[in-house]
Amino acid sequence: MLDSKIVGGLVVDGTGAKPFRADIGVKDGRIVDVRETDGLPGGGIETDAAETIDAAGRHVLPGFVDVHTHYDGQVTWDALLEPSSSHGVTTVVSGNCGVGFAPVTPGREQWLIELMEGVEDIPGTALTEGIAWGWESFPGYLDRLAERELAVDFGVQVAHGPLRAYVMGDRGARNEPATPDDIAAMAELVRDAVEAGALGFSTSRTIAHRAIGGEPVPGTFAAEDELFGLGRAMARGGRSVFELAPTGAAGEDIVAPARELDWMRRLAKEIDRPVSYALLQVDAAPTLWRELLETSAAAFEAGSPLYPQVAARPFGMLIGFAGHHAFTHRPTFRALAHLSPAERGFELARPEIRKAILGEDDLPVNPTKQFDGMKDLVALSLDRLYALGDPPDYEPTRERTVAAIAEQRGVSGLEALYDLMLEQAAGTDHPATSMLMIPFFNYTDANHDAIREMLAHPACVSGLSDGGAHCGMICDASYPTFLLTHWARDRHRGERLALEYVVKKQTADTAALFGLGDRGVLAPGKRADLNVVDLDRLTLHTPRMAYDLPAGGRRLVQDASGYDVTMVAGLVTRRHGVDTGARPGRLIRGAR
């Protein structure tokens, strides 16, 4: 008898093959049968099952594998790992961008929290209250995680920042050069981490990544001898990935990326392990990404496994009264800070409050704190700050910029911004819930053509969702749903991508990058990680601010409707978007 079978659905199996109608049988957490039913009289799986899931009129897809998340702390207190698990994700990989929580010198936990808070915009108060510490070494961290029962599978990489600080102390934290002895000590720990099950090693080399006090992530300026020493140690540990945010990724240096690719190419070839890096379109050099992609593809053909990670939509920041905005330091707005979001929304809608805020100057800001100078950022960006609308449109025309709307309405840019942020999103009972988008990257031409070209390139891997991070700025953990809705179904300003292609891009391809050959495809013998999706009804809703992190910390979440069933290791974890309480997810240890 089967544990379950999914019958009558249109299967998109993750291989890139065209959809086909089939039944799927599941036993002991594995797929044991995929039987096509088209044209077969009475076909399908006839074996009885404890549960039969009717997928008629639905698509059946593999569970999504998100390889770029930051749940390193959240995993210790949150078994759901939302918002990723609410978007069909069944496997996440954390420890990206050189930040994490192991190894840790006893007494230095708060320093790691401040590093993560600054780089990834995760509230430090939430991390301080929420993380259940109890390890020093990276293998000890993995052992602690192995005790967790989760809604999704969890894999993690060992990160350069905590590693450097653990071995070198303050010298490492200050980005001083590593000595040969330092490198040897770090290399031993990297090898130990991979042997214990780390899926890879990560580092950050962009100066945009800074701790809460403004210091660059340890490892930002690491020399080649350090990078190669750690890469070689990683390869000695087992099957693993070298992941990085490269110099120039944030557009701070348009010459640097080519230099970065040179050492990445040489490292990948020498250690014969994948090197995966963030690839974005920057306004200062809008075609540079294509040159880097061509160089990466040529290097891959020559035996250097380089894998650019690309985003599914413009990469930037959401602006709204619930999060970051231009009026944070106005005295009248500050006076409303103690109110609940609903109460504050009604106050902001009062004409006298609006007039007061618009007429005031900012109070002093903290120059070292990220985004404290939001007024200046917004003032310089009104011509590329877009009203998203409801439902959100991530490919808006230039007529949807605040500057254009202000001109249409005959008001100042800040007046238009205030009024747009004040609008009420569907499903809310108070104003001041609308969000606007500043696309820092991937939107130079105000369309998605460059993004499509990146996604369509076989060398690129879908990534950069930053699930669990940038809590007050973005909610790109919704990328999997966006790939299905926008790219496979709804895009109207240019070519779409085939459904089977976008499914493969975030299942088989992402799983293969990290050597997770047991998932990502719906075939006998594979893990029963899958989604039953009502693709016609699948909807990505407007981002909203929730206050559900420990210590009341805030985070942007973006709901989706249309996922009928999400299954992990043969157990249904969500039905119609609601958590079932099943916790089949576990720590993934890499090939050692």
TrEMBL record:
Residue ranges of domain Amidohydrolase in the record: 51-570
Cited InterPro entries: Amidohydro_3, Metal-dep_hydrolase_composite, Metal_Hydrolase, Metallo-dep_Hydrolases_sf
Classification via CDD domains: D-aminoacylase
GO CC annotation: cytosol
Molecular function as annotated in GO: hydrolase activity, acting on carbon-nitrogen (but not peptide) bonds, in cyclic amides
Xref: SUPFAM superfamilies: Composite domain of metallo-dependent hydrolases, Metallo-dependent hydrolases
Pfam families in the cross-refs: Amidohydro_3
Gene3D superfamilies registered for this protein in UniProt: Metal-dependent hydrolases, Urease, subunit C, domain 1
Domain of life where this protein originates: Bacteria
Membrane spanning stretches: none
Alphabetized PANTHER family for the sequence: COLLAPSIN RESPONSE MEDIATOR PROTEIN, HYDRANTOINASE/DIHYDROPYRIMIDINASE FAMILY MEMBER
Protein name (database record): Amidohydrolase family protein
Native source organism of the sequence: Frankia nepalensis
